[in-house]
Amino acid sequence: MPSGEVLVTCQDAALTFGRGATAVVAVHGADVDVRAGDRLAVVGPSGSGKSSLLHLLAGLERPTSGSVSRPGLDGPSAIGLVFQADSLIPALDVAENTALPLVLAGRTEAETRLPVIEALGLVDAADLADRLPEEISGGQAQRVAVARVLAQAPRLILADEPTGQLDHATGAHVLDVLLAAADRTGAALVVTTHDPAVAARLTIRRTMRDGRLLAPEEAP
């Protein structure tokens, strides 16, 4: 992976929900490049537009105006998403949840076995493989959600408040795992957070305020 290669770029990208008098602008004209190897924190309070920006980067939402392009990515499987809310499928055990993106991409059960074992090992969750989501704690579930992303070996990892619902120790461990996995695979990592201590662990920091992604020199 070429160092500094642009993976995804937003150019004056805006996102509006609704129309007319009820329209809500979630993101105003954001400009940002995410390059191979980046460790980017998008910082701001709840409701500032961080998640909406992440959805634009991921392709989960299309910009209302402006553009988002992914010149360094070869498809959705190159992006791994860690959601803030619980995202495990209740009917699937931990191993099956971890394997799900690989299965959806067309891999056989035999082809998913090794990456699932390795990913669960990275987050210290190998012993949970046969448990259902209802049988594990919230912190364990978030670690499994991270493992599900790591099993994909994506070029870009997008994590939406991955530590927001965890205690300090568990949150720190999840961030350790994300940073180590990004270093190991060479993936870019973008983390949204309201926690300055989390943001301080990433090398690039941008602030969102009222839906606006501030330029670095504007950040408070």
TrEMBL record:
Domain ABC transporter: 8-219
Gene Ontology terms for molecular function: ATP binding; ATP hydrolysis activity; transmembrane transporter activity
Cited Gene3D superfamilies: P-loop containing nucleotide triphosphate hydrolases
Pfam families attached to this UniProt entry: ABC_tran
Alphabetical keyword list: ATP-binding, Nucleotide-binding
Entries under InterPro entries matching the protein: AAA+_ATPase, ABC_transporter-like_ATP-bd, ABC_transporter-like_CS, ABC_transpr_LolD-like, P-loop_NTPase
Gene Ontology CC: one annotated term: plasma membrane
Protein name as it appears in the record: ATP-binding cassette domain-containing protein
Gene source species: Streptomyces antnestii
